[in-house]
Design a protein that fits this description.
323 residues; binds flavin-adenine dinucleotide; alpha/beta
């Protein structure tokens, strides 16, 4: 059954986040040959519409409003609900990012619809669209189908492959004027934490440090390794609590959930709350002095040793491969 499926394009620093392209790919599966409509909300976001089309959207609806220049759940909900009212889709896909996690329950409650959150794969089996999502902190997966009403899901970044970009693709871009009213939150200024480089939640390689890193300076070799691999630096809560790094780097149950192609855990014991944020990484390498550390139970490759010896050696070897 062909469906019309909306995808919210998530914009950060004037760029579309990768998860938006992954969401288009997910929407194609849900649409089953129907129409995939990108939605852009913001101020001066129209130039990004072509990008969504080249990445697979059939059409894009743009809502430009200065009150949408910064994300607020009130403002975005009004913008997105107006597009939903206009387009009457049968499906809606949003990235399971901080924005998506905040916005999607609000949209679902306004529409009185269900919501399948944190989806890691979607397939069509036996005439059903089957959504797979992790449960019990990633120890098991459940499969869900929607039997009635809007098919609404948020997708975990880095899990659903985007479709190949086609520079020659064309599609309709339209604008919708929405009067955004009664915002209860007004963003005056956005002050970024000083985290450089690749976005942790979308990184293909994550080098994470735990309490074993021992100090703020102890993170330097990890940063170097991440740099050589084009990855991002993450941390356990142990390292954040010890003030070796900022909480924005925390991975786990109460931090970020990451699914990179390669996760290198350095001096992290592997507490269940940490595993909740990284155990679905495609390849896990653990470096720990303690051969009994729990992190080795989820690791594909384990290195028993001192991270201050092992990490620089890895960096040097990867540098050679890059030359
Ligand atoms: P430790 O457990 O102290 O482990 C340090 C490891 O470093 C040890 O295994 C040690 O052998 C190794 N080591 C030491 N020196 C070296 C060296 N030179 N070379 C190599 N290895 C070395 N934790 C999270 O990470 N994320 C969360 O989101 C999170 N949420 C939580 C939520 C709740 C409600 C609770 C109760 C806890 C949460 N925790 C979370 C905390 C979690 O339980 C652990 O305390 C924490 O993950 C431990 O961090 P760690 O592995 O860095 O430290």
């Amino acid at each position: 059954m062909a469906r019309k499926v909306l995808v919210l394009g998530e914009v950060r620093d004037g760029q579309l986040r990768n998860v938006s392209h992954e969401a288009i790919s997910a929407a194609k599966t849900v649409a089953e040959g129907g129409e995939v409509v990108g939605v852009l909300l913001g101020d001066s976001v129209q130039p990004l519409a072509e990008e969504l089309i080249k990445n697979g959207a059939d059409k894009v609806v743009v809502v430009e409003n200065e009150k949408l220049a910064h994300y607020t759940s009130d403002g975005y909900a009004q913008g997105l609900l107006a597009v939903i009212e206009e387009e009457q889709p049968q499906g809606l896909i949003i990235g399971h990012t901080s924005l998506g996690k905040d916005l999607s329950p609000k949209i679902a409650s306004k529409l009185h619809s269900g919501l399948i959150s944190d989806v890691t794969s979607i397939e069509v089996t036996g005439g059903n669209i089957v959504f797979t999502r992790p449960i019990y902190s990633g120890k098991a997966f459940e499969k869900k189908i929607v039997t009635d009403g809007l098919i609404f899901a948020t997708i975990r970044p880095n899990n659903i492959a985007p479709i190949e970009k086609d520079e020659s693709r064309t599609g309709e871009v339209s604008t919708l004027a929405v009067d955004i009213k009664d915002l209860r939150t007004i963003i005056k200024e956005v002050v970024r934490k000083a985290t450089e480089g690749v976005d942790l939640s979308e990184a293909k390689v994550v080098v994470a440090g735990g309490r074993g890193v021992k100090s703020e300076e102890g993170f330097e070799p990890l940063k170097e390794l991440a740099n050589v691999l084009g990855g991002a630096v993450g941390a356990s809560r142990g390292a954040c609590d010890a003030e070796y790094c900022d909480y924005s780097l925390q991975i786990g149950q109460t931090g970020k959930v990451v699914t990179p192609d390669l996760y290198i855990a350095c001096g992290i014991s592997g507490a269940i709350q940490h595993l909740a944020g990284m155990s679905n990484s495609k390849v896990i390498v653990a470096i720990n002095k303690d051969p009994e550390a729990n992190i080795f139970n989820v690791a594909d490759y384990g290195i028993v040793g001192d991270l201050f010896e092992v990490v620089p050696m890895l960096t040097e070897e990867f540098k050679k491969l890059k030359v």
